[in-house]
Amino acid sequence: MPLTEYEQLRLTGEHWRISVLGEHLLRYEWSPRGVFEDRPTQVVTARPWAPVRAQVRREPGAAQVITAAFQLDYDGTEPAPSSLRVRGRGTYQSEWRYGLPLPNLFGPALGLASNLGGTARTLDGADGPIDMGEGLATRNGLSVLDDSASCVVDGERLLPREPGAVDLYVFVHGADHAGAVEDLYRIAGRPPLIPRWAFGNWWSRYHAYTQGEYERLMDRFADEGIPFSVAVIDMDWHVTDVDPATGHGWTGYTWNRELFDDPAGFLAGLHGRGLRVTLNVHPADGIRAHEDCYPAVCEALGRDPSGGLPVEFDLSDPAFRRAYFEQVHHPLEDMGVDFWWIDWQQGEVGPDGVDPLWRLNQLHTADMAARGRRPLILSRYAGPGSHRFPVGFSGDTVATWASLAFQPRFTATAANIGYGMWSHDIGGHIFGVHDDELATRWLQFGVFSPFNRLHSTDDPFAGKEPWNYGAPAREVMTRFLRMRHALVPYLYTEWAAGAPLVRPVYHEWGDRPESYEALDEYLLGRALLVAPLTRPRDEASQTAAARVWLPPGTWVDVLTGIVHRGDRFLTMRRGLDAIPVLARAGSIVPLAVGASTENPDELELLVVPGADGAYELVEDDGALEPATARTRIEWDDGARTLTVHPAVGATGAIPAGRHWRVRFVGVGGSARGEG
């Protein structure tokens, strides 16, 4: 039977429906009542059709669908191993049957061997590897996303599914793991465009700063030429000494005037220093009588404030949700708070059975967009679909080598479920000892991770200020923190490109068995391969080592200029001043000159000769719906010519009279020009 072109391919029986959403993606539904769901869910926001070429066979109550990627066989009865089967075609002759007792994949009675992992809700207290769950990348090329338990989104309401209903998405992408993630984004939404300044350095510490102490610290960073773009204020910004009868001091929304005597002036001062500000909140205890906002919240809810009864935290109540934002958070945002760090304590199941973490992430993200701001929060992962709610807070990190050694793999593997946005406690938060080498290696990883948020506990030996360490570590830390701000044009462009910012190498080289062994290195954007050093150095050589697989081609370490032949494993050793950061021949990496995270007046183009290459730099005006400018840059290796084309689009977003530098790595040489 020949393949037929379908604009939309859907088959329906009395209790089942099969929707072929693309060559590699299908949806299977079972409804005891014969009622199928077209509304969005917590995970799936849309189900766009893509043209598909397929063979379709229909028999009474049954169906077979064959595409270039898969064959589905279904007998029309209640889903069971004998009734529902999907087989991969081509190179990956894999097979999945519903209900087989394999490791679960997002739901009951589902699973596939060789799943390459996804991510976890948190790394709280993790001192080494933890279970990362399962994602869409598998060695057998087939995976299943079970959306049966996810609530239906009906306006502001979250509605439970029909009891006994089954709602599955089968991804059959073979070794094209990036394609599986792209199909996930097609049905579950793309990560939103976040503010450019979020890609700079973040300063955070669990410490009861006074207003003056914090301001002096930021001024010292500036005096030392150490750039930061985000100031994180942990929970001591608010009153913590509360009546135990009403709960504990973790929850709070009222400035502690003993520490911050002029909150509005404090926030304005940080903004004047070029910093954006986030405050830590633990929402679990609701709104209590000592809060400044308590009378307004009571009025909004029609309650009498004179009794002093706490307003319970309940996001299932629409009236509470409105008061939570309009009376509690919006006044603080109007004062100058740029976004929120949504911390722990609200549990995993709310009064309506919905995870409050998911609700908080979704509501805060939507509220920011409704107020004309680009969505940005700092919060834990709440399951598949959480890539729509950046940025991910990985929890209280243990300050040990074992903890650091796991973080690169954990960060990259999350891309298998589309979550390329982890922010770790760089340097470690709890336990551990003061260790110059560990702190430096962790910071180097942070600089080449999605978000670089330095953090520590309230311990005088744990502070992450570079001057707290010996001269060699201090110099390296300072240089790498400056390097992070130089990377902002590249990081922002790569985020805007739409793929997870950090990915395992098998997302690009999934047809190479070696890529599945190279789990402690990762791709940062499209141009850079990073292999963090996560173990102590050898005392004899004073270097640390990483075993690195280089994919085929010629690679150049952009920090050292060393040229490597690819298609092999090799051991790379570096002193404290570097880690392996490699780019393929033909790569072009745009770097900012200066500390600002704004569109820079001067750019340096890092060019890796050896092959032709091109790059399109993306910049915009920072608006929620941005006006975007694109600058195409081309390297002709044979002619040894670099061309910077005139920007197109919203060129007003680009500084007039921009200056350009060029730096060639692997061959030496530099140039300077204007464009």
From TrEMBL:
Question: Member of which family?
Answer: Belongs to the glycosyl hydrolase 31 family.
Residue span(s) of domain DUF5110: 602-666
Which GO terms of type biological process are on file? Answer: carbohydrate metabolic process; N-glycan processing
The molecular function terms in GO held by this entry are: alpha-glucosidase activity
Domain named Glycoside hydrolase family 31 TIM barrel: which ranges? 191-493
Q: Return the SUPFAM superfamilies for the record.
A: (Trans)glycosidases, Glycosyl hydrolase domain
Classification of source organism: Bacteria, Bacillati, Actinomycetota, Actinomycetes, Propionibacteriales
Q: Which InterPro entries match?
A: DUF5110, GH, Glyco_hydro_31_C, Glyco_hydro_31_TIM, Glyco_hydro_b
Q: Which organism is it from?
A: Propionibacterium acidifaciens F0233
Q: What class of enzyme is it?
A: hydrolase
Under Enzyme Commission nomenclature, its number is: 3.2.1.-
In terms of CDD domains, this protein maps to: GH31_u1 (cd06595)
Q: Which Pfam families match?
A: DUF5110, Glyco_hydro_31_2nd, Glyco_hydro_31_3rd
Q: Which keywords has UniProt assigned to this entry? A: Glycosidase, Hydrolase
This protein is called what? Glycoside hydrolase, family 31
